[in-house]
Structures are given as C-alpha cells and as structure tokens.
Amino acid sequence: MSANRSMLLIGVGTAGAQIARGVSRAYGEGLRYVIADTDASTGEGAGDFILLGGDRLSGRGSGGDVAMARLAAEDSVQALDSKIEGVRMAVVVTCLGGGTGGGATLEILNRLSSLGIPSIAFATLPFLFEGDERQRNARGVMSMIEDASGAAIFLPLDKLVSGEDVMESAMKRATDSVASGVTLFWRLVEKPGYLKLDADRLRHLISGAGRGRFAAVTAQGPDRAAQAVDMLIRSETLAIASAAPKAVLCGVLAGDDLRLSELGQIADGIQEAFGKQLSFALGTVNDEATFSGRIAVVVMIFEMDGRASSSADDAKAAGGHRHKRSKSVLGAGPSKRGRFNNAEPTTWRGEDLDVPTFIRRGINLDF
Amino acid sequence: MSSIHAALEIGTTRTVLAIAEAAGGGRLSITSRAEIPSSGIRKSQILNIPDATQSIRSVLREVEKRQEATGSKVTIGNAVLAISGQHIMATRTDGQAIVESGRVGDAEIHEAVRRAREMPIPKGRELLDVVDQDYVLDRLGGITAPKGMSGKMLRLNALQIHADANRIQDARSAAEGAHLEIRDTVFATTCAADAVLEEHERRNGSLVLDLGGGSTGYAVYCDGFLLAAGVIGVGGDHVTNDIAHAFQTTNAQAEQLKTEESSAIPVRRTGEGERVRITGSSALMESRTISRLSLDTVVNARLKELFAIIRERLEDQDLVHRLHAGAVLTGGGAGMKDLPRLAEQELGMSVRIGRPIHMDGLDGEKAPWAFAAISGALMYAHANYEDRSILDDIFGRFFK
Questions:
Q1: Both A169 and A298 in a single domain?
Q2: Any A CB within 8 A of B42 CB
Q3: Whether residues A164 and A56 fall in one domain
Q4: Would residue A35 count as lying in a domain?
Q5: Closest CA to B85 of B237, B215, B229
Q6: Do B291 and A367 touch (CB under 8 A)?
Q7: Which residues of A are less than 8 Å from B291 in CB distance?
Q8: CB pair distance less than 8 Å for B139 and A67
Q9: Which positions of chain B have pLDDT values less than 50?
C-alpha cells in the first residue's frame, strides 16, 4: 500500500471542502482527499465528491438542519464506504455551526469508527458574530464529534483571525489558516524524517485522545527555534488554562540545516510552557525543498479528560521522545485503586479518579 | 381504586423498590417501599446479573409483603427503572419547521417536535428521554407557547438523554430474572430533580446534584427548562475507598467512618474529639484510633475535587452565571456532615438539601433525600401511565 493511500483527507460541508482543497493545493502531489456535502454545487470541479442524501435533499443542502444532514449522511454510507476502502487513517476537516458540518461529520466519523479506521477531526467553531444559533449548533455536536473521532481539534474561527481583518475576507483567511496547519500536519505524517510520526504511530498516539488543541507556526533566522516556541506559547488556539495533565505531540519540519540544539530548545520550551505532561512525542520531517532556511513546528495538545491517554509507552513505541514526567495515567496503579481495581477507570483531565484524591494531591496525613 | 405504580432503582449501594398511588391534590403517596444493600454492582453498573436479580427479587417480595400488611394485596408485575452511571449523556438537539402561512399553528409545532424526536443518536446508545426546551421563532428565543405567533422558521430546542444500550439491557435482564417487566427506563438525576425542585428554582436557575454511591448525576435548570445534564463516575463509594486506603480499614469500617464520624470540612479539634475509634473488624483485631483531622482531610479532598469537576463542567457550558437559585444536593450521599457548606464554598452559590416535596409516605424517614430519584420515577410513572396500573400486568401474567 502506498503511503498516500494510507491516509485520507475528508472535507465535509462547503467550508470543509474549501479547507480540504486548500490543503491539497498546498501539499501538492500525493495527497488523497474526498469532499462530502449535501450541496451538489460544492462538488463542481471536485474529483472525489460524495453528494450526501441526494434522494432526500436533491443536492440543495441541509438548510442548516443538523438532523437532516445526519440522515443524509446515513443515506450515503455506501458511497462513503467505497471511498474509504483500504484507508488506515482519516483526517476530517469541517466547519461547525451549519447543518452538514455538524450532522454529516458526525455520521462520517461514526462510520469510520465502526469500520475500525482511526480518525482525527479538525473542526472550526463559528465566529461569535455569526450569532447564537450557529454557536448552539456547533456546541450541540462537539461532544458527539469528540466521542466519534479518535481525536478532535476544535478551532474557534475568532482565534484564527485578527480583529483588524476585514469582515468579508475573515472567513477565507480563517479557513486558509486551518488549511495551512493541516497541510503541515499532513507533511509531518507523510514525509520521511529522523524521528518518524507516520500514520501507524500517530494512530497509536491519538487513539482515544479526546479533545485537543492545535497550532502550527513557521519561523526563520538564527533564533528561529526560540521564535517558534514563543509563537506557540502565545498562540490563541493552543491556550490552555487548566493545569490538567496533557499528552503532547510535537512535529518539527525543516530543511537540512536543522540543528540538534534547536530540536532540544523546542522540545524543552514546549514542555516547560504547557505544564505537566503524561506523554510527549516528538517527530521531525526533513524537507529541504519546502523548508530550506526555515522551520515549521506543529503542536497538538490533548487534555486527558475522561479518555484513555495516549500513554508514554505508546509515545516510546512510536519513536517519540520520552521525557522525565511521562506516566501512563497520573496516580494510576492497581494497588492504589482499591475496590475499583478491575473497574473501568473514571478519568478527568488525565487523572484516574479511582485513585484516592489524597494520594494524587500528595496530601500528608497525620495518623 | 386509583392506579398504583412501581419504580425500581438499582444503585451501587442499595436497590430500592417503591409503589405509590395518588393522594389527592396532585400529590402521590408511597404506600410501600423496601431497600436492601445491592450486590453485583459497581460504579452504578451491573457486573453480576444473578446477584442483581436476587436483590430485585428481595425488594419485590418485601414491598409486596409490606403492602399486604396494610390490607391491600398487590403483585408487582412491572416498574419504571431509574438508572444512573457515567455512561449516561445529554446532548442538545433541535427540530425545525417552516411556517408557510407566516403564523405558527399546531402543524408546525408538531413538525418541530417530531423532528426533534427523530434526531438520531450515536450507535450503541439508547434514548432515555428527549426533553423539550424553548422554541425559537426566527431569531426570537425563549418561547414556551409559539402557537399564533408570526414568523418564518420555528425551531424547538431539546435535550436528548441517552445511555449505553448494553448497560440498560443488563438492568432489564436482571429485572426480568425477578419476573419484573421494565416498562420504561428513566434518568435517576432528572427524576430526583422533578421530586425535589420548587418551581421558582426551575425558573431562576438551579443545579441539582444527585449524589449516589457509584456516581454523581447533575441536572441544570433555568427558565423552567432542563439545560444540561450528565453524570460523573465518582460517588460515595470513592469516599469510602479513600478512607479504607488511607487508614487500612475494611470497606465496612470505612463506610461507618464516612457516615458516622467524618465531616466534609476539616476542623482541628482538641481533647476527646481529636481521635476517632475504629472497632476491630474481628475478634482477633484490636480496636485503634485515627486522627479525626486526617479522616476529614481525606473526605474533604475527594468531595472538593468532585465539586471542582462539576463546576468546571458547568463553566465549559457557560452555565454557572445562570444559577441564581443555587444548588440542591440530593441522593444518598447528600446527608454527609457539612456537605452543603463545602458545596457552597466550592460551587460559589447557595446550597440546600433536597427532599421529595411532592411525595407523601416518607414521614419518619431519616434520610428522605435518599428517596428523591425513586420518588421522581414514581411521579413519572403516574404522569405517563395514568390509565394503567401494575395490576394490568398481573392479569396479563395469569391469563396469557
């Protein structure tokens, strides 16, 4: 199986299609993508297009109806199956707020999951100015998307543009920004590197990771590593307020001139900036043709709440870089779980809540 | 004779069955109830169906016996089942209808309701309830009765409550083993809320916390609607487990320390109150004492964490600022000493203990809050099966 056959990009809905096309344009040859929408006009000029619910909606779109879009996607499951045959991992890009973005994405992720194909969803959340209804539509499906996908990254559109952007171009700018991030992510997985994060290894890392944050930055010049770390720390899409433990995936894309010291600077900077981590996986891509003289750093952070963590062992198995604070699940260990020893763990922000709180908090008791 | 309905709650620590009949004035009265410690259940989920069946059989027999003692013989053939567990989730949904005439009529309302009901749920889940919220007509929200209003698009917001289908089937199987038909399955926490909340609390914004043995359910109400609900897989059993681990006690000793000695807020004491005696678990084990402050510290750490998780969940959904009427603690764990005070500190709102307010027959009960969910389930049964009673199924059993 060729490398580019192992991963499939699926753009859902009109805006999801724009992102997928943007990724394809930026990546160039070798990326396979499919567009799925309830609106037939989205498919014009698209190679691989699935019209969702053709009989039900006659290609006129879902009219913002999440339920209708879900039913439409269910109707078209056979068409989807034919496109995902042989795929080992899927990246789904979409914009939440309307009908198809939320409803159809959910069904597609469910289908992927039922076929055992791990998926990662990149979903934008509506601009605040778009109003309550779209916000509510988006919020209504977020947790279900999170459940249905191996890992879900939600990107608020407001955080992808500056307040100075002209309103008319804000949407395009935001989707371009998502496309550019997903392209870097794709390169990270598909291009060879010294510390490889290929689809199989990534699959291990993200499986069940839950809701995550994502940022991708590029920098050049002599202090490019420090610049990149600084930009990541200030990145609005990566901002995490909670002190919850995290699983971190970091990819560095560079040309032949990437120095070991730069790699160390980036790894240490990120670990220091984003608090306690259950696992830290580092991958690199050597792509002189694209990144000569500059670097790109892609970071995904998963706050481990109520999900199985991508454990440090996975990170190690994936060739990732394991650091001193790596643990499988904070405080876990059969002897500490008492009567919950064989029970399915209850986790929150990466902590095993079945382990006594006083142990996890390091509270000393006077007997 | 008025209809008699039964409700069953299979909890982590106890299995409860109760029957109730209308008492007049819109109230119900529990005429007979029984509870026994559960076995084969952990974290609100059945791990051993025969054990759970045995528990159900025992409460069934006991309720029938107690009812007979009142001079009215019944054979309970069916019940509404109230369930909890962290597999239960609530997600938002809606149903839309185009208002072609420009004025909302019954047809549009029915269409919006129908479509909200038809919204699919994830595979492997079973729908427990679809709870209607407000109507939105074009951009105008918060509407409760849209009929006759002018606009183009009507939407009904609703909340789907769904659960792991396998877990529900396990509970049904356990009940079937005791020859008890489960006619409906309901979410214990919203049942508890129905039983304990005052109308003004539903309107002004209230959080109900149903503190069970294996899990803690929450339900948020505002403007009269259920806005959010869910379950956290941490309950009173976790407190017991923490105590057992900290002081190397048996579960029974830890349970006793939790219910009889501990406080949710640690206070340093001097003199006699400084230490707590643990009676030996067998003749060979000597009694010993532990620090009361340490006991309270262990309990406090767990409960503080639970409230912090709940607050975070509410903050994630931007709900905290809407809870003007505060929080209501109910369920078996609500009676812990100083719990309301700790909840007030951690949740940042006023807190009260919730006991069933629409239910008679709980006089003399030391912990009426522990019967909130079963009371709500009985209210649900009476509201939804008005024309039937448990006797229908008795005849069904004998004459089929």
A1: no
A2: yes
A3: yes
A4: yes
A5: B215
A6: yes
A7: 365-367
A8: no
A9: 1, 392-400
What ipTM was estimated for this complex? 0.89
Out of A140, A336, A343, closest to residue B93 by CB: A140
Q: List pLDDT tens digits, range A91-101.
A: 999 999 988 99
Q: Are residues A249 and A165 in the same domain?
A: no
Query: Which residues have a Cβ under 8 Å from the Cβ of A85 and sit 6 or more positions away?
Result: none
Say if A125 falls within a structural domain. Answer: yes
For B156, the domain range is 89-161
* Count of structural domains within chain A: 2
Average pLDDT for A215-237: 88
A258 and A307 together in one domain? yes
- Tokens describing residue B53: 């069946």
Whether B112 is in a domain gets the answer yes
Determine the Cα–Cα distance for residues B15 and B34; give it in Å rounded to an integer: 8
- The residue written with tokens 């609390």 in the block is B201
Do B125 and B258 share a structural domain?
no
> For residue A18, what are the CA distances in angstroms to A15, A36, A145, A184?
5, 11, 20, 16
Q: Is residue A362 part of a domain?
A: no
Same domain, residue pair B329 and B265 = yes
Residues of B in contact with A343 (CB under 8 A): 42-43
User: Which pLDDT tens digit goes with each residue over A205-219?
Assistant: 666 566 788 888 889
Mean pLDDT for chain B?
Answer: 90
H helices of chain A, where? 3-6, 13-27, 54-57, 66-75, 77-84, 99-114, 132-148, 167-190, 199-206, 224-234, 260-273, 288-291, 312-317, 357-360
Domain span at residue A257 reads 205-317
Task: Decide: A306 and A210 in contact? Cβ < 8 Å.
Answer: yes
A67 and B232 within 8 Å at the Cβ level: the answer is: no
CA A74 vs CA A56, B121, B123: distances in Å: 11, 12, 12
Confidence of residue A204 (pLDDT cuts 50, 70, 90): low
Q: The CATH number of the domain where B298 resides is what?
A: 3.30.420.40
Q: Would the CA dihedral through B35, B40, B43, B46 be positive or negative?
A: negative
Mean per-residue pLDDT, A314-339 = 38
For chain B, positions 314-343, list CB contacts with chain A under 8 A: 317
Residue B108: strand, helix, or coil: helix
Q: What is the pLDDT of residue B280?
A: 65
Residue A127 lies in a domain: yes
A110·B123 Cβ contact <8 A: yes
Interface contact B96-A365, CB threshold 8 A: no
Closest Cα in chain A, distance from residue B242 (Å)? 5
